[in-house]
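so the lab meeting is tmrw and i was supposed to have these ready like two days ago... anyway. pasting both below. for each one the top line is the aa sequence and the line under it is the structure tokens. i havent really looked at them closely yet so no promises
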Amino acid sequence: MLVLKYIVSGIGFFSSIGATLIKGNTKKQFALMIILTFFSNFFTALGYIFNPEGLNGVASCALGCIICLVNLFFRSKELPIPKIVLAIYYIGFFVINIINRSTLVLTTIAILATFTFVANLSQKGGKGFRIWKLANNLLWGLYDIISGSYNQLIVLHIPIASVTLYSIYQFDIRKSK
């Protein structure tokens, strides 16, 4: 079972990396970014299922999957995401993180990180997606440092943040020079 956990977590990791490496300046490219983010959340949730303490992660990732699908629907119709839908996302993540019953500091960081995830998927293009994804990974990295989850920091959040920084440079900074 441990091997299966690593396989599904790895698929989630590479889906997240893939989403970051897409420029995202066309409707199809941005839709692919959201689809890969869906798969990242889906497979990460499967990885959390193998951890008895991972129910909060399963719930958060499941909500992340729902957010991806709903946002993909609105993007496909070229409609803005209604503010009430965004409010539901924020309330959902807030409740999930409060139920977790962690320390005040870790709960606050988790809430902020999940809120940046919503902001990340609420963007209209790749540049905003990458900036919010970087903020999200930096917050989860801080969470990992404070909670002592150095394995997550080293194998997940530092690599994703590094690829995101590279993508920001490649697609957003370098092109303007």
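ok protien two:
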Amino acid sequence: MKGVLKYLTFTAALAAGLLLSGCTVEDSGGKMVAVPFTLEVSGVVVDVAGHKPVGGAELVLTSYMPEDTDRTTPIGEAKGMSNADGTFKVTWKEHIKGTVHILHFAGGLVGGYNYRPYNMELNIYSGSPGYNSDSSTYTISDLVVNLERR
């Protein structure tokens, strides 16, 4: 019984760690989206400890070449700020095929709390429900960005 409890505790801790530290949003819809396209990312920023929306958090959507595995040389970026209710929207116009997109919060002081950095890789494909080929727009909505206090 102790072994099962230890396993369940470890599994829960691992899952919580993945949720809090950012993750990859995979969309196995098919082939890469044709360029140019517009990427629209929206959702809500939440304080994990207080379970409340975080207003005033700057989110940056950055585009990288896939071979830049260390993510040190961005191609470009778009910024957005969360509103008082925690909602945000960031829009990026992509012109290079096969790029990698990272949604990033640098960390720091917001609303009186010091937060850890947050990164989420967004993988996008043309066959997914979020892609509209008529407008060449890929939409990721209802994304929850969980910020952890330091």
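from a quick look at the 2nd one: The mean pLDDT is 82. Residues 2-21 form the longest helix (20 residues). will dig more after coffe
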